[in-house]
Every structure is written in C-alpha cells, then in structure tokens.
Amino acid sequence: MSSPQKTVFIHTMPDDWHAMLAEKALKRRGHRVLRYFGSDFPERAEIEFSYNRNGDAWGDDLRLHTIDGSFAIADFDVVWNRRMLGPKVPPGVDPRDREYVAQQIRFADASLRSLLRDAFWINPYDAARNADHKPKQLQLALKNGLRIPETLVSNRPEAIRAFIDRHPSVIHKPLIGAAWEENDKTLSTYTARVRSEDLPGDALLRAAPGIFQAQVKKQFEVRAQFFGASCFALKIDSSRIEYGEMDWRLHQNGSMTDGSVQLPDAVYQACLKQLSSLGLVAGAFDFIVTPDDEWIYLEVNEAGQFIFVEQWCEELTLFDALCGFIESGDPGFVYERPADPQRLTELIEATAPQTVGEDDRRRRGESCERDAVAA
What we know:
- The chain has helices at residues 17-28, 98-115, 125-131, 134-143, 157-166, 202-207, 265-278, 307-312, 318-328, 344-350, 358-363; strands spanning 7-12, 32-37, 46-54, 57-66, 69-72, 78-81, 120-122, 151-154, 170-173, 179-182, 185-188, 192-194, 210-214, 220-227, 230-236, 257-260, 282-289, 295-301.
- The strands form 5 sheets. The protein has a 5-stranded antiparallel beta sheet with strand order 16-15-14-17-18. The protein has a 4-stranded parallel beta sheet with strand order 2-1-6-7, with helices on one face. A 4-stranded antiparallel beta sheet has the order 8-13-9-12, covered by helices on one side.
- Helix content is 29%, strand content 27%.
- The chain is an alpha+beta fold.
- It is globular and about 75 Å long.
- It has 3 domains: 7-122, Rossmann fold, CATH 3.40.50; 150-214, Dna Ligase, domain 1 (2-Layer Sandwich); 220-342, ATP-grasp fold, B domain (D-amino Acid Aminotransferase, Chain A, domain 1, 2-Layer Sandwich), CATH 3.30.470.20.
- The chain has 11 helices and 18 strands.
- The longest helix is centred in the N-terminal third of the chain and has 18 residues, at 98-115.
- Helix 1 packs across helix 9 (318-328).
- Residues 21-127 form the MvdD-like pre-ATP grasp domain.
- Residues 349-375 are annotated as: Disordered.
- This is ATP-grasp ribosomal peptide maturase.
- InterPro entries: MvdD-like_ATPgrasp.
C-alpha cells in the first residue's frame, strides 16, 4: 500500500548528491519535492507572505517562489535540513546598503524557517546547530551511558601540555572542520597525532581552541546511521588503508568493510538517548571498537554522509529507509524492509551521475562547462 502524498522541502545546496538521489527516490514514490538552495535567496527565490481580510474573516497566503515553481508554505509536510546554507546579498547592492540588506534577508530567512515549524523536521534547526558543538555532545554522551576517550577541549597552554604528557599518544581534532585553498589545492582538516614537540607557542595555542583526546586502540570502527529508531551500521577496518589509524575518511574506499554489524543493545539504547538529548531524530554515529570489544563513542553528525554506507554494503538499504522515515513523520520510526526495496544503484543510474551538477547549474542560469561532480 502506497503512503499518502507528501510535500517535502529539502534544504540543501547545488550539486548535493544525497539530496538529488533522495529527490529522485521520493518522486518515484509519488511525493512532491522541492530541493531548495538557501543561497538562492533573494536573487532566485522570493517570499510572498500575504495577510488579508476577506469579508469578515482574516487569513494568510504564505508562498515561496523558486526556480522550480511556487509553493504554499502550509503544504510542506516534511523538512529535511540537509545542508542549510544562508542567503546571499545580491552583487548589485550598493556597498553602503549591504549591511542593511544582509540583516533583512537574514531575518526573512529565519521567518521562513519559523513558518515551516509545523512540518516534521529532519533535524530541527536549533537542535542541529546545538549538535554541532562537540563539547556538548561529549557531556551528554557520559550522561547517556556512552563511553568516550579521555578528552580535553581547551586553549589553555598549561592544560594542553599536561594532557599530552599524561598520555602515551594523543590526537587533535578541530572544534569544527575547515577547508581552504592553498597552492591551487583544496586542503581540509583531519584528525592528527600531536606530540609536545609539535605544539606552537602559547600565544598560538590560546588563539585556536582544539579537541585533544587520548588515542584509542582499534579493533575496527563503525559508522551507524539512525533514522528514528532504525539503525544501519557498517563495520570499517581502517587498518587496511594509509593513515587509517588516525582518520579513515582521508583515503576511504569500499575495501575497508566486511559488511554490516549489530550494535550491542546497551550501545543502541544509549544512542537513542543521545539523539533524544540533542533533540535530533536522525544522525550518523562514529565509534571505535577496541580489542577488548568496548564501544567508544566519537561523535554523532546530524547531517552525516551515508551514500557510501549503502555503496559498500548493499543490504543496508538506507535510501529506501529514508523515504519510509519521511513518509512516517515519526521520530520513533522503525524500518520494515519491503520485499523489493528501492536501491541506491538504481537511483544512481536514473540520476545520470555523469551530469551531476549540470542540471543545477542550468536551472540557475550558470555555465555548464565545469567538470561533473563525482558521487
């Protein structure tokens, strides 16, 4: 039996492969989908919020006009807060007016989110922003029964040096990931080992707070994607790749996995508590499993990548589950896999991956001469 038609608002950015595939999957199931680019407002997206009297009665007509058509705000059943970029001040605005225009469009953008509040959000905006703060995650993880590495978050030089001296091996992570251009290359932050001799002077240590953790021995790692109460967990043997002892994301590939893995019940229940404490309904958890079979929580990413999970392990039908989650509108969603689920390979074939990004650029009136974006 098919689910009643939903109107789904996917807040994302151009060329987001996850959003493209979700749009294709949902439309196949009969739903109406708006893949909305926040950075298009106000140049390519317009709000029209009318409040009028008709006879003795007052009413409103709240609409969002985009390059994909006009949508009534009240019609949206679900908001997938996938990649929420903010609005941009149009280039033609006089420099003297830019601050004023920036303020107005920022508040208009916030008003749009407020008017969408009655929809089912994956994940609620405020909760998603709160979950970006790793110190808060770590505090809640301890309360919710998750084990974590010994950790220091600090810009206090004496505390950092003492922490490194107390542990045989320490790794460093940024409070939030960063990317930048250097020598015609795009560089990004990753987890790295840090020793006392690697530390800069005190002034620089104070300037950039960081996360320092005692390095944990690994038997293997786990990426566990939750949609509601449904968990899809992938076993990752990071020892098979270069730099895997630090950060498997740097050289990730499908040879790193032996397939799916089951979370111990205590860990699964603690994950549900962690989601609830953070106000999230979905998230991608990362764990290290030690040689003693201890599950060590690293973080939950409220908008983590999960295409690779289904690519590396086809039995984990995440896109079919995502559609079911959206259709349910239920924070406690439990996935019941159908006999013939939608599969990622079919969605990729139908979405023509060699032209990923080309359609988005054409829709927005941009040049299509750039290279296609790889999945």
